[in-house]
Amino acid sequence: MAKTVIKPETCVPCGKKIRFSKLAMKCKECRAACHPECKEKLSLPCIPSCPSTSGANKMSEGLISDFVPSERPMIPRLIVNCANEIEHRGLQEVGIYRVPGSDREQKELKEKFLKGRYPHLSTIHDIHVVCGCLKDFLRSLKEPLITYNLWSKFVETADISSREKCQEQMCQLVNSLPQANKDTLAFLIQHLQTVAESVACKMPASNLAKVFGPTIIGYSSPEPEPMQIMSETRKQSQVMDRLLEIPVQFWSELLNLDDISLYPAGTPYTPDGLHYAPRSMLGPINTPDMPEMYAHDITRSHMTPKYSFKSREPTKPSRFFSSPLVN
Which residue ranges are recorded for the region named Disordered (predicted)? Predict the structure, then answer.
């Protein structure tokens, strides 16, 4: 919705101030403000903002449905933004999601999200802080994404020896989750599959299953006993392993990723990271005696002179010799 600014606000996409009496756009869901020309750069989906600090503290221990927009895809903005940033500049980090970040910075970052401040994650130098923020948010939920009433069914299904039958029943269980849990789980699994495919990270699916098992799968009850924790920890990673084995097509069809940008607005992207130089009007240089592999394009740089100098004629040899030095 459009509004006239009375109290100066900050534009979320560009970070600049929206001054007094200027027109601004404001989201009805998350109350994020922006310039009219920056409207298309807002990240989607958004999360409802907290009215006060006490409300933010209360919401930090709520259900996943407390942090999602009213329309699909129902995924918390914190998870979408953090996952986007990690995929943008964290897929070359060894031990991503395993190496810890600063606890203080993680908590501050999560608090900003819960208060609706929408921090610019590109300004956070340590990508492990962004990873820790995402994990801490999942850890603080009142109920994991795998709900308590379906927990035992997921564990039983993970024990099925037949891979095809296991995946079939696992997909049925995923579809029986609440909408917010299902959308968030689908987005996270695809994100973790992307991380697992990165050789540089050295975090295969088995490692990620151990890291995210306690937060995404959780335990069978809100307050497990010590012996229960010991026996159910292995089951958590087993269920997580089975979820990561489900093909990406299932998760993308479940979520319809066309509605979500996996890269922040304005991020340059070309297939395979290739950047092509402009070609010369004359085409590539290639002579019959020159192998094709040595052919290259001509590109004129700003240092190249517009006109070439004429080659000078070789000077004629002088008829005189230089005089010897006289002391």
Answer: 305-327
